[in-house]
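Exercise 3.2. Students should predict the tertiary structure of the chain below and write it as structure tokens, then compare their answer with the key that follows.

Predict this chain's 3D structure.
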Amino acid sequence: MLRNTRLSAALLAAGVAAGFTFAAAKAQTAPPEPTVKATKPLLFMLLPYETKAQLAARTGAAQKNYWGTWAAYGKKLAEAGVLAGGSALQSPSDARTLRTRNGKPQITTGAYSDTKEQITGYLTLRVGSMDEALRWAAECPAVKNGGAVEIRPTVPTMASDRQ
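Answer key:
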């Protein structure tokens, strides 16, 4: 448990040194111990979020630079052997949302909800812990561009999760 506390403190210090600010959802002195110890790497989904304004600002050289940072990030993840998959997503206006109303399918154009931020892609990482997933997420270009990244462990029920 002491190791986790040191690691979390080191991550926080590194983030502050890099200019990030943190808002705590609830005070914790250390991450909770997992109820099941992992005997192999786990899958974590990284969901980058950016605002419409951030997306609109990427034109010309800024767009080329942005995608260059994503290419470098993807290469770093792949070389480290932690990248299990991922892709950028097209605009929410290209999405379709399927619901069932009164037993009948209803399709609407656009994303599920109109929010301030939108999911711009996804990455699946195969790492040993949430702390490791957080370290990789801190390097995500979306975060460095002022966006956010949601890090969520997957439920290991699919055959591909049991490798």
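Discussion points: The radius of gyration is 18 Å. The beta strands are 42-51, 83-88, 96-101, 104-109, 117-119, 121-127, 148-153.
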